[in-house]
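Subgroup meeting minutes
Present: P.N., E.W., G.H.
Scribe: E.W.

1. P.N. recapped why we're keeping a running log of single-chain structure predictions: easier to compare across weeks, and new members can see raw inputs and outputs side by side.
2. G.H. added today's entry (425 aa).
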Amino acid sequence: MRNEKKRVAIIGSQRIPFVKSFREYARTSNQEMLTAVVQALVKKYTLENKRLGDVSLGAVMTSSIDWNLTREVVLGSGLDPHTPGFNVQRACGTSLETANLIALKIAAGQIDSGIAGGCDTNSDLPIMVQRKFAWKLIDINNAKTFGERLSKIFKIRPGDLTPAYPGIVEPRTHLSMGQHTEKMVKEWNVTRQEQDQLAYESHLKGAKAYKEGFYNELITPFKGVSRDTILREDTSVEKLSKLKTAFDKSDAGTLTAGNSTIYTDGAAAVLLASEEFARQNSLPVQAFFADAEAAAVDFVHGAGLLMAPTLAVARMLKRNNLQLQDFDYYEIHEAFAGQVLCTLKAWESEDYCKRVIGIDKALGPIDRTKMNVKGGSVALGHPFGATGARVLGNMAKLLEQKRSGRGLISVCTGGGMGVVAIIER
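Output recorded in log:
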């Protein structure tokens, strides 16, 4: 394969406001949300009727009717219909992975431009029938005579008609992500107070970013909504401390609806290109997508479900001859405030870094004033497939405003995986 090793420019991003599920975007599909976001990118960067090299989008909660979701979005976006597209799914790391794949294609010289992104909705869930009922329906459809079909219909039982709702649980442990995180915070001795404090700071920084106008150019209005609806300007540590625990109802439980992300609907996308494409089309360059890494942990046999980014970051740092402290900004996805704190403590632990990561010493602490400086997922929301593109768009704009620097992105995912990236300017 020819590999040009070209620099990958981040031109810009767009997203729709993130909203609490079952509210403003009720009965709105993934395709509708993603189309709105890609249309916004097309309009902002004057890409109407232009053929891009490729488009990669994804969602976690998808229906079988969305088998060609990305291509359908492209056809409704205003791009030249000769622009191809493909679906990707890596749980909560989906849209950061789509960006990585588009970036690799650009760096290799296969394409000169592309869009990466993702979305998710819990308000238009792909509700299924029970598998045993589906098998009976298949048998009915395959019956060759009316009598045979009728006999198979009579085999249907009332219990077969119970809908099969998607569950946010790990199939191999039968535990939810929140239950797994409760185990993590107990292992790392992360207190309720620490989690509430981080959640409060996330809201505080998000509210400040809105007042500063940081999100004005990053968000396109959708369905009558012009800003994230989960963000609470008036929250406080005191208010958060009064919330009941959500996953461990005993006195030992510490995770609440306030220090965890809630079900969120939304979509986000990022435009990537070669420097030559940017020059030819008079497009600005916010930053450059420098590198990315994915990792996994054996959570089935005891590892923390959301600890894979600790491994991915260490590998990526080694490959780039960098230290954990060599960054101006950190975007660490807040699936739960507790999960972020576990990650930070792991990086600071010499025992963990030697035993689990396999390096000689601890990666060390980060300057937390540089972390999630415009608010994190706890405050802004977390549509599973969209978060990666959101944090990538945030990071690119931060570096554009600073006019130089380096940023670290870290996203934990279901299935015990993590996706991380380095962004530079």
